[in-house]
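Bug: token stream looks shifted between consecutive jobs. Job 1:
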Amino acid sequence: MAAIITEKFRLHNAEQFFESLSESSADTYYIGIGKPISFTSDTSGGTDLSPPTPVDDVSSEFYLWDSMIAAKKLTSSDVSYVIPRRNWANSTTYDMYEHNISSSNTTTSGATNLYDSTFYFMTSDYKVYKVLDNNGGTNYSGAEPSSTSTAPHAIGGYVLQYMYTLTSSEVANFLTTDYIPVSTDSTVSAAATDGAIDSVIVTAGSGYTNGTYYAPVHGDGTSSGTSSGAIIRITIASNAIASFGLTAGTDTTIHAAGAGYTHGTVSLASNEIYSDASLSTATNVGGGSGGAVSVVIGPKEGHGDNAVKELGGHYVMLHTTLTQAEGDDFLTGNDFRQVSLIEDPYNYGTTTVSTASTLRSVKAIKLASGAGTFQADEKISQATTGAVGKVVEYDSTLRILYYQQERFADFGTPSDGNKDAFSGTHTITGATSSATGAPDDGADSSVDTGDSTITFTNGFANEEIEHDSGDILYTESRRPISRASDQTEDIKLIIEF
């Protein structure tokens, strides 16, 4: 059975995800960071220099929760449709928009799919243009485009359609070396005409009679085949049909674009050629051969009506920034190696979907006494209970020990295979630092950490996010990213549907 996943299906999925952040019954999404401990063969596999490829199975999702540090909520302003970045450069050959690109009708670059081709580009001042004609597959030659006209315009030997200009916010939040944010310019959209003929493909042929001729476009457009429909103004010079362009008398041009076409043809037969635009005086182009004029059918609603659909915006970028400690939930005393997208997580100990802007995902202990300074990433243990874990950060001023318990030996699970909880006032010891500390069972209140508070019960505080709640929709493994108290991380996730 022959089948295909269409571009429309990809766009539909991207739209559904995009809308799920802003609709009335919107889903809640968080970007989480985790894995402060190095990748090793004893745990997740891989190394810090060569992070492991994430695995899509039940066990791996549980593990992601074990190693998560914190999560930050996304808003509707943190998401954008994006498309692969194509930059304008002079003396570069770009593809052009055609309605029928396939393996049997490839683009100038050889692409078999329109959206894999270079039929659009962005200029240095962040204007995006669609190429309606690439001058027979030759290099762009001329100044950088700058026009914001809603009508097709000629420059550099090309015919271009202005689409939109990136806003300063789009540039700051969603522009990368590989992707361009895409949105629709309302002025351009309002000027678009459904089914207008905006370009043609010319085969020059030879032996034709020089002159200017008019030919109706036959098809299903409004008043097709008549003087009220689309009309092509054909210029023949040097006994060949001139290339398509916008200069009357020099180029073969669109005399009237018409409307409503989903298919169309132009005939060079003697009974289909006229000497006047009103199509009242029949003539002929002579006894030439090999020439043809083929119309290019625009997208539904016309060029510029919906830039996301027209340029293949089946990519969605999620963007957030981690500014220092983010209310003390995003600890700055360690690095991270994993980034995840989480849908509808719960508040700790509940089945209520969280709405907090940030959520701490590590446990904490308030120490009453002890000696030494616990080190990030070192193993901690409590001999009496058998509990083990790994230090994420130690606040020596407030004597708060932040830690994780992963499911691996000496990471959170002792030799007996049980994940025992730290409890009581039993001494906790650092394996590397030899630091010691006893939980403060009198700490039964909120502790001000500077930008937030942590509520302890007998010296212990749970996470703010319920582990294993909601769904982790996306995850990636990276080389270590160090954090600092005066640092901001800019995180961008690109999802292709």
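Job 2, same session, no restart:
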Amino acid sequence: MALSPQFGSIIPSQAQSILASNYLQFDGAGANSNNFAQQFLPELYEQEVERYGNRTLSGFLRMVGAEMPMTSDQVIWSEQNRLHIAYNNCTSASAAGTITIPVTAANAANPIINVISPGSTIVVMDDFGNEAKCFVRISDTALAGGGGNPGQLTVEPYGFANLVAAGIADGAAKKIFVYGSEFQKGTSTANAPVGANTYAAVNNPQVTVTPSFTQFSNSPIILRSTYTINGSDTAQIGWVEVSTEDGTGGYLWYLKAESETRLRFEDYLEMSMVEGELTAGGPAALTGQSLGMQGLFAAIQARGNVQVGFSAAAGLDSFDAILKNLDTQGAIEENMLFLNRSSNLDFDDMLGSISGGFAGGTAFGLFENSEEMALNLGFSGFRRGSYDFYKTDWKYLNDASTRGAQVGPASIEGVLIPAGTSTVYDQILGTNIRRPFLHVRYRASQTDDRRMKSWLTGSVGGAFTSSLDAMEVNFLSERCLVTQAANNFVLFKGL
């Protein structure tokens, strides 16, 4: 009886070849059980290629504002209204010599009240460039539904028989504003004019203007993220050497995943402050449902200035139009421009084109550069009129995974943010304090600081909080954005 070899055939192969039977199975059974990587040693690079460079997006809010604690479910701030008295959308009836202010009911959310006193002098303007200066003889301060002639002024134009003679058509919507007053000798403000050369206090009083303000609010949102890995995989090595941003490294892949979860969460803290939206009901009903939070873009679109289709490449005229609008607002002298790449280059081209000196088509005069100096065409700051601007690229608007891939009317090309601070009254401190126009409020107390929390749960990685054979890395933050004086902000959107 022939003996069978214990470990297979002893007959050698007739050709030199690599057989599957010569190698251990790495990937399972079948055709995929022996691949090239297991049969021959590859040339293996143990470092990742950083093909996207620094992928983090945070840093914007650290440049423009500050973070400060809060101890409530809401932050409320008050913004002063305008000092002078003016009304839009007024109507006139020249035959009666009247101008009517569109007053609203007293119980309206923001009532429009006539606060023009008899004896005031006003400017009346229409949309066609016509204007007339008028003396107010009678002013009815009643509101709609209160009887009388709500919001009606009886006026006498200076230099004209009536408003029509001054070029102000009846019924057309017009703007009026107070520029002063005029009283006759030997009179008092209690004796306001009601008829030609007659004075009486009856039903024609002087109006005391009480300062008013507008309140805004925002509510913090809670952001959370978790990274989980089982205990076995924390001891599993990989092919590629891991190098994390916090300085740790090795061949344990979970270190990379944990680090990226943290970085992604830190970006979310900033991105949510920029992109946040309120729910339809707003922040009034502080209940358990999702209320949202008004971020930077939403605040500017609701209370600020939106410039659609602006391009610095069009020249200074289009940019000067923005300056004229800023003049009508707070006229804050120092401002920061955070732009995407295209808009930033357009600004450079605009500034370069207005340089005073040229040599071979290259300008040297804008910043008093000499020809021998190295040219710097990436302008970081410039002055126009009474305004100083500091501009920079905003990575968030360039990154393809965020706003950088957008084109058309939904694209955001940049933002203009006033620099410096505003003065507000702190009810807790009982004093006036200064706050950046743009800043973050986060929940914190002596018990818990919720600016940026991280902790471990499970039974792996040094945590022994449960019987779970895993490591859970938890991240949490509770915060909101305060955008004060949004009327001085500008949001640039594409065509």
